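Entry 14. Ran structure prediction on the chain below.
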Amino acid sequence: MQRPATSACRAAVLVAALLLGCSESTSQHAARLPRVEIEPGTVTVSGISAGGYMAVQFHIAYSGLVNGAGVIAAGPYYCAESSLQLALGRCMQGDDEIPTDQLITLTSQLALEEEIDPISDLVTDRVWILRGEADSVVEKRVVDALERYYKALVDPALVVRVDRPRVAHTFPTLDAGGDCAKTQPPYLGDCDYDAAGQMLQHLYSHLNARGRVADGRLLEFDQQPYAALASTHSLARRGWVYVPDDCRGRNASCRLHVVFHGCKQGASFVGDRFVRGAGYLEWAASNRIVVLFPQIDPGVMPPNPNGCWDWWGYEGERYAVRDGPQLLAVRAMIADLRREGPPR
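Output, structure tokens:
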């Protein structure tokens, strides 16, 4: 089994550099991330397909920070082992059995080597997994492997698995998007099922009813400082962050959820349709949840024509550990959003 090469470079050093580099406005036309007081222990992540794989990677690499993950149509950590062939085969179509036990052992070894956070940080996290039974892109055995992987590292009672009939490779919503049984842009399905709400209810529990998106602000921010200092070439120029009105003010205290879009689902392909239509904003507005939507651009270097998050190593073999370029860039966004001090 291939594994990331070790390196003396540590993510904390680069996050510190990113914080210092983002200390002043980087563009006249792009807002920087606003300062928000985030309650300790309330950072969670989610994603669909390639974004689901990215959510798992970020959760595992930074489990000391992240307290839960929602994953739609994806498999376990390091499934692709730096191989596009494995990514397209066993990690999507389930051509071969995914070696879940070996991936768990690798996760433990990477933690012991301090390439990722300790696996003990995962035990009390909440995990929500969904697969559509009409999904022909990511097969059932792939999601089964993800469930087995998480139940080996997380208290199984905190892992929820949902299988929805007539749901294709799409993000299920109450009433946004196209035919639930079809896989088509913007990959939002009108499924009479609120995946975002069900997910957030499990990750946070005891949420208020959906609110009004207008009770908050959806802001663009400049991603280029993070891209430059994390040495990633795939971030789009702009990302989005949604800040509820209740999170604005000196004494406001809120939670943070990070959403990773799927392939061909970023702004370059669908504008803000996924951001506005998936259902996250309504729940965020009434429950003091800040939602960060980092964005990937197709770009040309490295080749990434579908605008996917890197879960098979197109930006280098260290893509799945803490100082992997895209993981580090998003970690620095969170640090800047929370105005963390430079690591000691």
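The chain has one domain: 11-22+32-338. Will compare against last week's run tomorrow.
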